[in-house]
Description:
Blueprint: E1 8-12, H1 13-31, E2 36-42, H2 43-60, E3 64-72, E4 78-80, H3 86-89, E5 93-101, H4 105-115, E6 121-129, E7 141-145, E8 154-157, E9 166-169
Parallel strand pairs: 2-3, 2-5, 5-6, 6-7
Antiparallel strand pairs: 1-9, 3-4, 8-9
Amino acid sequence: MEHSTNKAKILAGGAMVAKMRRMAYQVYEKNFDQSEITLVGVGFKGMAMAKILKQLLEEISPIKLHLLNIQKDGESSFSYGEGEGPSWLEAKHVLIVDDVLYSGYTLFQALAATMAHRPKKVELAILIDRGHHMVPVAPNYVGMVLATSLLQYVAVEFEEDLGRASAYLY
């Protein structure tokens, strides 16, 4: 995908921390009665966000948290790594985490791969929802809704120090 070299910072450091902390509180408020939740990071950036969300949830809740990664497995499907998935997904509460929601295809595929393991409940957490959904995927937790054109691109860059993480609009 070709995009402009002009980039605008739309979310940085403290603002990103605040949005993710708010999402963590929302997850806890809606799931305070759960004994455990499995956070599933979609790809590299979804996993980076899931790790941060897990850390923030651990600061505020007694819920036991598991962390899994789901990766693209070819053109149109996703899968869990060898030995991952079934034991932490079957009949469990699952929170699928990704950085940006655009068409919804990626989340739809991750959701389909997760549903194959028969979870009890599945929710979606997205840092930035930029609209233009092509499939009926609606996140339960959203850090920011951003109106974009079809020609624009949103990129999130996570750092070990969340205070240095940023999101850009190209």
